[in-house]
Design brief:
The complex is a heterodimer of chains A (365) and B (564). Helices cover 32% and strands 23% of the residues of chain A. With 365 residues, chain A is an alpha/beta fold. The termini of chain A are far apart. Chain B is built from 19 helices and 23 strands. Chain B starts with a helix and ends with a helix. The chains are: A alpha/beta (365), B alpha/beta (564).
Chain lengths: 365, 564
């Protein structure tokens, strides 16, 4: 009899332990935050350019002022792949707690058909307009937070608009973007990148293995082949920033980034470091690209961030509604190598930013 | 009944009930319901996911009804009833098939969408009969894009007919089958996109069955993917034509100006002028030209070249213009004295002064004010048609007493004078020597700013006068001294700030507003966000005051577009 009771207790405990993270999340208090998100790069209905952000919002139980959770498919300003239409007037709720510009690269003709080769085609919708940026700046106060992420400055955003964004955020884009490729000889490398390089060097693209590619705003391409690239692009937190985002750790960044110079107004909280040969370092330096450059730029006074990469871009759907211990994020990063940056850096970073923003208005509901 | 007959009856019942009921369900519920969802602003994706349940729900309902039919009729061997019910639904299915296969039938016609010419290249609508195809061919269409789906029985038949008709008429039929509400139809959508892109310039008629759901879906895709947008903001009518000033009255209903150049004619025509009153000599070539313009555009043409422009003539002409109820454009070759005098009547309701009766030392301002230092006898003033005298100066005896001789004070005097309602002689009392400044301000109120202001460097940038505009110009935020030297001295009455939050600050806005308040200028702010152009045009067109538009130096070129 006792054995049976113990058995039942054991089973009950097992189930309680099993479901505890889910129950615990249900009992967590909700956070009312008014969030406005811009994502113009939604050619397909995977919403991947802002998916990471919505995972964090859901996981942190962030609710809109009416108590509803934010919907990945509809609660953003930008291109709607199901309607084949882009929004035209960015209406930001007033007051707003967080404005997030996830991507303004836009949607191109061939993107609508999948564009597996990454070919360039006619722009259908995209680029940050002065009207949108003015609207953002109108709603930006000293209390709320503005986060702008790559690619929101580069083409097709008009250079005059870019200059204003740079001025407002206290940053300067060097005109260069870059990316680490696991394999330079596969479909991940966009066709336009190969073609531009071939045209400029009058040679056939024969790169194999890992490599780094850089492109500037005049479409000039620099490729660092595998022998010059020792490792992936390293993302490293600055010492002061580690205390601000305690759960975020260093990692590797594997997608497009832009090379930004900070002004005195901003703190560089994290940097990219390139593990490359001295020869490659020299080549980059000749083109004005340092081997270490800012990844996260934060203006503490104005509460603005610039993320020099596609940080909210996540490929997979992850379940958000449970109390995930910090260590589990490392487990996730181990088993989902493509999203490792999301688990090691982005999710903990955004959780800290949301916590900080929530505490401004004591907005638990 | 044998087992096989029962099975056969059930299958017939299921098919006939599902098909006929589904047809009615589609016409009388789904289509109106979808229209309602569209009306209340639901997104297409939401509509699809909602209607998908109704589509599948109808299938389940059909199965359920079939089960009931089996359980209560067939299984109980109610032979006559079984046959009757099945026959009833079979007949019904036949009727529905007939109705749906004949798109001309009243029932279907009632539910059909309208033909919409979305762009010059693409028109959307319902299923076209042979006559419709013939008409399309005559109208220069190159092909038809059909979204009919051959897996739907009646659409299959219609598709076959359409292909035959297309061949006979000589129109190519491009079939891209789509299913309404279910599935993403990606393959067909991609195909349509490619077809239209690869055949740029060709005209297509795109249709589904009713010309509603599937067609709307494709319309959104094509309009988005081909970048066709008809967005254009409102246009400001120039107030300074090449041959002279343009004046507008009665909310721009009456336009008075010189003979327009070709682009100026286009601008006027876009402002929907309904009548042209011309003072040109009927023998001139320009007269013939404008007569042709009027005829081609269905505009009433009224020549008054015989008019002698006596006082009575001018008053009668003003009365004629004021009593019309349509947009009217009156012009001579240029803007001479007679037009400026007419302007006084239309603008102020006053009889213009006789400037030739005034001494040379007195300056005529806009034919209703005279400014000078001389003491004029009432008889002389009367002869010149002046009914009022006003003096200004620092002396307490002046009608308008100034605190000092600053620009701000002279501006205050100018405002007071400009608000008068009668022809007035304005005289300076004392030795202020501000007469020319006052005249400049009054001329600014009446006729706008001097072009020489263009390119004036100020602390935060440069002031620009845009060609074609005499009463509106633009530049950056100005400091107090710049306000006095460039705005007050030139008779600016209104300031509009095109507020770009990425450049301007609340502090700048507040300072500008305070300066406007201090000098008694009206001020308005327009946020430079989507659609601001229309608001700015409305603001500028709504008043005839000389207006300074504040723009961020970095965004000036964008704002200039509104003026052009």
């Amino acid at each position: 009899m006792i054995k049976r009771i113990l058995g039942v207790i054991f089973i009950l405990l097992f189930f309680i332990l099993l479901f505890y993270p889910f129950l615990s999340w249900q009992f967590d208090s909700k956070k009312a935050l008014s969030v406005a998100v811009m994502d113009k790069t939604v050619p397909q209905n995977d919403y991947r350019e802002h998916k990471g952000l919505y995972w964090v919002l859901d996981h942190k139980k962030v609710r809109d002022p009416s108590g509803e959770s934010y919907q990945l498919e509809s609660d953003y300003y930008g291109y709607d792949p199901e309607e084949y239409q882009g929004d035209e007037s960015f209406e930001i709720p007033d007051p707003v707690d967080l404005i997030y510009v996830a991507d303004t690269y836009g949607v191109y003709d061939k993107d609508l058909q999948g564009n597996p080769l990454g070919e360039r085609s006619e722009l259908l919708y995209g680029g940050l307009t002065i009207y949108e940026w003015n609207q953002i700046m109108m709603n930006k106060t000293d209390e709320n937070t503005l986060i702008v992420e790559f690619n929101s400055l580069a083409s097709p955003t008009n250079p005059s608009v870019r200059k204003l964004v740079e001025k407002n955020l206290g940053i300067t884009w060097t005109g260069w973007i870059g990316r680490y490729f696991k394999e330079l000889d596969d479909g991940e490398v966009p066709v336009w990148l190969r073609e531009n390089w071939e045209r400029q060097h009058d040679q056939e693209w024969k790169f194999k293995g890992k490599g780094l590619a850089f492109v500037n705003d005049h479409d000039y391409v620099i490729v660092l082949p595998s022998e010059d690239v020792h490792d992936k692009v390293q993302f490293k937190w600055e010492k002061e920033a580690r205390s601000l985002y305690p759960d975020a750790v260093d990692g590797e960044y594997g997608y497009w980034f832009d090379i930004i110079q900070p002004t005195e107004e901003v703190d560089v909280e994290a940097r990219y470091e390139l593990a490359i040969s001295p020869k490659a370092e020299e080549l980059l330096e000749d083109n004005g690209i340092p081997a270490s450059f800012p990844a996260i730029l934060h203006n503490k006074e104005r509460k603005t961030y610039y993320f020099a990469g596609d940080y909210a871009d996540v490929g997979e759907d992850y379940y958000a509604r449970w109390s995930m211990p910090s260590w589990y994020k490392h487990v996730n990063s181990f088993f989902n190598a493509d999203d490792a940056f999301f688990w090691k850096v982005y999710a903990p970073l955004m959780e800290s930013i949301i916590d900080a923003q929530s505490s401004v208005g004591e907005s638990d509901v | 009944m044998s087992k096989y007959i029962k099975i056969l009856l059930l299958l017939l019942f299921l098919g006939a009930f599902g098909f006929s009921g589904g047809g009615y369900f589609l016409l009388f519920f789904i289509v109106p319901f979808e229209e309602w969802l569209v009306e209340i602003g639901r997104k297409q994706s939401e509509i699809d996911s909602t209607l998908k349940y109704f589509v599948f729900g109808w299938g389940l309902f059909g199965l359920l009804v079939t089960y009931v039919f089996y359980r209560w009729v067939v299984r109980k061997d109610r032979r006559a009833l079984s046959y009757s019910i099945t026959a009833f639904f079979l007949v019904n299915a036949g009727i529905v098939f007939y109705l749906f296969s004949n798109t001309n039938s009243a029932l279907v016609a009632l539910s059909q969408g309208e033909v919409q010419e979305a762009t010059e290249q693409i028109t959307f609508g319902p299923y076209p009969q042979k006559d419709d195809l013939l008409k399309l061919k005559e109208e220069g269409y190159d092909g038809v894009i059909t979204l009919l789906n051959p897996t739907i029985v009646f659409e299959n038949q219609l598709l076959k007919e359409e292909k035959v008709n297309g061949e006979e008429v000589g129109l190519s039929i491009h079939s891209y089958p789509m299913l309404p509400w279910v599935g993403d139809n990606k393959e067909s959508l991609d195909g349509i996109l490619n077809l239209v892109k690869e055949n740029d310039g060709k005209k297509y008629y795109v249709h589904c069955y009713l010309g509603k759901h599937r067609v709307d879906y494709v319309k959104k895709l094509l309009v988005s993917a081909t970048g066709i947008k008809a967005e254009k903001h409102a246009e400001l009518l120039d107030d300074d034509f090449e041959r002279g000033m343009v004046f507008t009255y009665d909310d721009s209903r009456i336009v008075l100006g010189p003979y327009p150049t070709d682009p100026e004619w286009f601008s006027l025509l876009r402002h929907e002028i309904k009548e042209i009153v011309t003072l040109l000599d009927s023998d001139s070539s320009l007269y013939e030209k404008e007569k042709k313009v009027a005829e081609e555009n269905g505009i009433q043409f009224t020549p008054i070249d015989e008019l002698e422009f006596s006082k009575d003539d001018i008053e009668q002409l003003a009365e004629y213009l004021q009593n019309t109820d349509h947009k009217i454009f009156l012009h001579g070759f240029d803007i001479g004295d007679r037009m400026l005098k007419l302007n006084v009547i239309l603008n102020k309701g006053l009889s213009p002064i006789q400037e030739n009766q005034l001494p040379a030392s007195v300056t005529n301002v806009a034919y209703w004010l005279a400014v000078g230092n001389a003491n004029l006898e009432p008889a002389a003033l009367n002869k010149a048609g002046i009914s009022n005298t006003v003096s200004y100066g620092t002396a307490p005896s002046a009608d308008i007493v100034m605190n000092d001789d600053s620009i701000g004070e002279v501006y205050r005097v100018a405002q007071s004078i400009h608000s008068l309602k009668e022809t007035t002689y304005v005289k300076e009392e004392g030795q202020l020597n501000q007469t020319s400044l006052l005249i400049n301000m009054l001329n600014g109120f009446e006729y706008g700013i001097d072009e020489s202001l263009d390119g004036t460097k100020v602390e935060s940038g440069e002031i620009n006068v845009i060609s074609g505009n005499r009463k509106r110009f633009l530049g950056p935020v100005l400091n107090e001294v710049e306000w006095e030297n460039h705005l007050l001295s030139n008779g600016v009455e209104h300031v509009v700030m095109v507020y770009a939050a990425s450049v301007h600050t609340e502090e700048m806005k507040k300072q500008t507003e305070q300066l406007a308040g201090r000098f008694n200028l009206t001020f308005s702010k327009i946020d430079m966000v989507k659609g601001y152009e229309d608001e700015l045009v409305k603001e500028l067109a709504a008043n005839d005051r000389t207006t300074y538009v504040i723009t961020a130096e970095e965004l000036k070129d964008l704002v200039k577009e509104v003026f052009k």
